[in-house]
Amino acid sequence: KTKNQVLAFDFGASSGRAIIGYLEDDKIKMEEVYRFSNDPVIVGKTMYWDTLRQYYEIKQGMLKAKQKGGFKSLGIDTWGVDFGLLDEHGVLLENAVHYRDDRTIGMQEEAFEKIPKEEIYHLTGNQFENFNTVFQLYALVKKRPWLLERAETLLLTPDLFNYFLTGKKKAEYTMATTTQLMDAKKKVWSEEILSALQIPQHILADIVPSGTEIGEISDDICEELGLEKAKVVSVASHDTQSAVVAVPTQKEDFLFISCGTWSLFGTELEEPIINEDSLKYNVSNEGGYGETTTLLKNIIGLWLVQESRRQWMREGVEYGFGELEEMAAKVKPFESFIDPDAPEFNSTGNIPKRIQQFCARTGQKIPETVGDVVCCINQSLALKYRYTLEQIEACTKKKYPEIHMIGGGIQSALLCQMTASANNKKVIAGPIEATALGNIAVQLMALGEIENLKRAREIIRNSENTKEYTPQNTKQWEEAYCKFKEIIIHN
Ligand code: ADP
Ligand code: LRH
Q1: Does the keyword field hold Kinase (predicted)?
Q2: What's the CA gap between 275 and 325, in Å, rounded?
Q3: Closest to 76 measured CA to CA, from 12, 161, 154
């Protein structure tokens, strides 16, 4: 029997990759055929995604996959919340704006004057973040209404590329749940929120479940690239949800941290949890594959290391991620802590300096060397995970024996070890390419090669090696956690 190869495009905020996958001997075999950087472009005061370049990279990836035996279907996942606007001819009106752009600053407060915060939360169950699609759109309503008047369709990033490839305009479910515009219970666009904020409802596309075959790559593109016809599957197109598909467990209740540019810490549920506690802790209910819900918290993640590395590069020194980790492992730990999610760390710029300023302001030792800064970031992330763990456990009223860490960030053994120690729980790390694996698994389910989600996770567990970390120095970490809580509460 010839194997059915599928092609996954996984766009992270830092890089994108094209990975071929197929099922063999009860394992998913993968081969990365293409990797590219995904750099935002600042023009004037606006931070854009390079949308057409990203589409170009998809074409490059398809060409590479063709050289490796081709593919029956293709699926795209990306970061959440961002979108492109199309006119009545289906032409992109402007490049997608990056979620780190500051057009949304102050928009939450203005929106809450039109519809109370509590009401938005009770409808959507989403964590409040400036960058949520709802506040990006409200920024347009307030600042550039003509753009919305010109728009006929809004498509979130993976849906936009699916449209470029097939001509079909759909809104995939997991991605739709990142907008804070979807009614979490009814699973439709929320008329209440849209009308309160004067966001035109007609621009939103029909919501389709993850795993829907939305069409085929168009004849023009097949001709341009010399490709065979292939299906386009709307996978769990929010990258976080593709990663959750790939958690290598058979348990119903599990904890995961998807570690990349962001750290997404959560658990899978059958139904959303939307109550006073979840609102107080600002925890998100986001849609997962098969209409599951993931209760999770967005934590700023390894963005802090990435952006510090860029700063050091601007200062003339280029470090590899492995090198940074080695330097961090050598310095004295527990010297200083930051709240990684403090607003000043969100935007691009001199993160090491902002970390030093945070430490000075909170009366702590100032991290001086590169190793000090990276150590401070990693230990603060591990402690923020602990803080988040307590919030998740308070919402679900459950305790969990272990944490699955998945994604590119687990290449940092230091972070995995610190996470085990800070949370006093075993960490099971792997797979690194969880997102691409989840993307591939959903395509294989759509092609009928894998029966269901549980079976997909079993196959993924067979396919990938994991590494375990057990807690160490728990007394010191307990003390560090008390200090950390003081700092973040009083900051
Ligand atoms: P994205 O969310 O952009 O897809 P990835 O999942 O690819 O991100 O993870 C990238 C991050 O993984 C980097 O920012 C870096 O912090 C970490 N990382 C990658 N390689 C290593 C390494 N060799 N050692 C330590 N950390 C690493
Ligand atoms: C992670 C992620 C996360 C948020 C952010 C904008 O890549 O998708 O879940 O939505 O990007």
Answers
A1: yes
A2: 40
A3: 161
